[in-house]
Amino acid sequence: MRAAAHRARARAGVRFRIRAVLTGLLLLGLSGTAACAPDFPAEGDQLTVIGPWTGVEEKAFREQVLDVFEEEHGITVHYEGTTAIHELILSSTLAGDPPDIAIQSGLGELADYHRRGLLQELPPGIVDEANQRAAWLSQPSGMPSRYWVPVKADLKSIVWHRGDAPPDRADVSEWCIGMLSDATSGWPGSDWIEDILLQQAGPQVYEDWASRELAWDDEENEAVATAWRTWLDFMHGGDGGAGKYAEEALTTDARDRLLFDDKAACALEHQGSFARTFYPDRWFGLDFTPSAGLLPANPPRGDYHVVSGDFAVMLRESDEAELLLEFLASEEIQRLRAATFEATSEEDGDEAGLLPPSFSADRRVTDELYTRNDDPVGARIVRELDGADALCLDASDVMPPVIRRVFHEAALESLAWPWPPPAETPGPGPEQQDPLPAKLADIQRVQDELPGDTPRFDSVCG
After folding, report:
1. What CA–CA distance (Å, rounded) separates 377 from 236?
2. Within 10 Å of residue 448's Cβ, how many Cβ atoms?
3. CATH number, position 324
4. C-alpha distances in Å from residue 372, one per residue of 101, 125, 339, 382, 447
5. pTM
6. Residue 183 lies in a domain
7. Which of 135-144, 339-348, 415-424 has the largest mean confidence?
8. Does the N terminus or the C terminus of the chain have fewer Cβ atoms within 10 A?
């Protein structure tokens, strides 16, 4: 009955307009920043936006947000969804023709763009900071002005399951785990390690690590090594043991609809609130439990959550671009995206179903909106955001891009290690040693070699 009500509301409230994508995903095979960049329009009454949303998410963004902006302001917006935002920004800038606005999740990458002089300063008051949750206002130390605005928020440190009964703590055999995600493969592993570290060590240690104050291989505070070992012990346990589930995770896509896949036969999925978009026809049958009570870690120290977000930046200065950024971050649009369901149809080439509403860093987007829209799980997510002892941005998202990539790669590599490592015995053979200390030292070595002007986020928790 709830699904039918959602569909009826979507048909009544959402306008269907089909507009062609003007530029394809040109950079899926990009190997360097010198590749050819698309030609972005530069007319004053047109804007080009690139962002991470494709498929039904792109359709929702066009119809719920961009169509409204075009109608209100008479400015045409060309949107291109791509998984290669970083490469596209660098290549188009090299070609002297960047898009007007870019939307992406990695604040570490945005800070790097600022270091390179690619971002345009935003005017004061472009986002209502007094009503934003603190974590999404994080900036590198020494950045006096605002260069990005939060346009979407997600809650992590949660575990999805079918139905509404909280599950018991389970071994790895009960979990849906996939490490693959195109160019960003490995991020689910970094998410596990970050969440375990936050629950084991607390937000201050987590923040010190994310901001490069705590070394990866610190010998006095081994929080990173402890969290990583906890994850590997968990991944190599379960029925069958001997790395069976670790190996399966290395060949499974994180975006597969695992909770409703009979072949997967799993019951728990460690994903953020965005995971509901993976299930366009089944998300209203999902419920969640905070991860602290389910993770393979010590008893929770507090009500802590990792969070993430999507942020918009201006690459080409204009009054029109500033107007769109202010529009994207406005209370009106944030509330609209939280209260509107985007219907999809097989005729449009999308899988039949409904796209769930988005979440916001704006406190004025309250749980009442989701309750009114018959989305009790969405309302609970907002209450978790409001009631948490600490909300900490995804650590890898605020790390410099090279460290983020190395972290993802190391998470993948470590799943292929024999585990637990054999006890060390005399002799130089690497097979006789625990590989984790050397791997953490390698990551720290890369971090130590960063340029001196690499941005650093002093605060990522709020």
Report:
1. 32
2. 10
3. 3.40.190.10
4. 33, 30, 8, 13, 47
5. 0.87
6. yes
7. 135-144
8. N
